[in-house]
Recover the amino acids of this structure.
């Protein structure tokens, strides 16, 4: 059974970089056809796909966030990481990591972690 768990700081100051890690257990982030994604949910913007890193290590980003987003992976730890720079209070949201088959079928999802941007 594949499980995902988000970890990272729940409070980030404006203009700083938000950093979250997703640890995958019960399966490998190199499994063929899986895209390991970051998605966020906020009252103002609703559900927003931020980007993904695929089984081969290729990265994909939402055009609206591309300039501030970086996704990487650590295969030795079976983890992938989100970094979002220059955050503002509008980046306050619940952040989820997810495993999407062929980037369209949501097979796995973490429980989500609240991140608040505030001074």
């Amino acid at each position: 059974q594949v499980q995902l768990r988000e970890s990272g700081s729940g409070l980030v100051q404006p203009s700083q970089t938000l950093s979250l890690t997703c640890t995958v257990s019960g399966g490998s982030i190199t499994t063929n056809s899986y895209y390991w994604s970051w998605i966020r949910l906020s009252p103002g913007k609703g559900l927003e796909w931020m980007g993904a890193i695929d089984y081969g290590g290729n990265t994909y980003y939402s055009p609206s966030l591309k300039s501030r987003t970086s996704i990487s992976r650590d295969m030795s730890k079976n983890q992938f990481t989100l970094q979002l720079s220059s955050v503002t209070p509008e980046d306050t949201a619940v952040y989820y990591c997810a495993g999407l088959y062929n980037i369209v079928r949501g097979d796995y999802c973490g429980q989500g972690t609240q991140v608040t941007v505030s001074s």
Remarks:
- The chain has a mean pLDDT of 96.
- The first strand starts at residue 3 and ends at 8.
